[in-house]
Design a protein that fits this description.
Chemotaxis Receptor Methyltransferase Cher, domain 1, Rossmann fold, seven-stranded mixed beta sheet
């Protein structure tokens, strides 16, 4: 299959308009390989014809979703970026829980945005079980969202390879997982508060429904967006957070060029961002 640069740019721009995902020109070979997979399945010979199909022959967006599932990468594992999770568990979580207890509002809502195959939200669930005093008296909800429908199917099953659990502390592995041959299944107590949803972060209408969050984890997701899309997504994150809530980005990501709305906090040598309104 031959993919001319001008056809690639037309396809790339269409993907961007619909999803906010931005693929630079140097990504042409990455996109071409995945495009070829879909074209072969559909029996389509030219990229122009495939783009026409996306625009005019895909009323329910099913084919566009198939393409997005191939274009999104999902490299993750339990307890990824452990030092950041430690700051969440030992500092931010304790602070927010203490404030809620003083106000007798024992409800926690956490959003894992770009949850992939579920390792992050299940990790957060384990941390809450371990770190929240009298956990059973709290109303806990972890909303886990992703644009990729296939990874959400896997996440709901909660079954993982040895590689995915390589960084799980041994005591947690025994306490919160069931070993089945070479697989590890997440126990019900961990899965119970986690709700998986399909969500395009550029869908303004659905993003407005994501409210009342105490914490948002959006780690290594904004790197797939361009500057304008990042600003739009982060603006919606700000509206979704409760006052005093925190947002966590990936180690290689920074809020400085995206938004000045959040207060920068340094905790144990790491930077986190908090919503603070007067």
């Amino acid at each position: 299959m031959k993919l001319e640069l001008r056809d690639y740019i037309k396809l790339r721009d269409f993907i961007y308009e619909r999803s906010g995902l931005h693929f630079e020109e140097k990504k042409i070979y990455f996109v071409k390989k995945r495009l070829a997979t879909r074209m072969n399945i559909l029996g389509i010979e030219s990229p122009k014809e495939y783009l026409w199909r996306l625009k005019y022959g895909d009323p329910n967006g099913k084919e566009f979703q198939e393409l997005i599932n191939l274009l999104t990468t999902n490299e993750t594992y339990f307890f990824r970026e452990f030092d950041q999770l430690a700051v969440f568990a030992e500092n931010c979580l304790q602070e927010v829980c203490a404030a809620k207890e003083r106000e007798d509002r024992k409800q926690l809502r956490i959003w894992s945005a770009g949850c992939s195959t579920g390792e992050e939200p299940y990790t957060l669930s384990i941390i809450l079980l371990e770190m929240v005093d009298r956990y059973h008296t709290w109303d806990v909800e972890i909303i886990a969202t992703d644009i990729d429908t296939k990874v959400l199917q896997k996440a709901r099953k909660g079954v993982y390879s040895k590689r995915s659990v390589k960084d799980v502390p041994e005591e947690y592995l025994e306490k919160y997982f069931i070993k089945d041959g070479d697989s590890y299944k997440v126990k019900y107590i961990v899965k119970k508060p986690v709700k998986f949803r399909h969500l395009n972060l550029m869908d303004e209408k659905k993003m407005r429904l994501m409210s009342g969050m105490d914490f948002i984890f959006c780690r290594n997701v904004l790197i797939y967006f361009d500057e304008n899309s990042r600003r739009a997504v982060v603006s919606n994150f700000y509206e979704s957070l409760n006052n005093g809530g925190y947002i966590f980005l990936g180690h290689s990501e920074s809020m400085s060029r995206i938004s000045s709305a959040f207060k920068l906090r340094r905790k144990n040598g790491l930077i986190v961002y908090q919503k603070v309104e007067d």
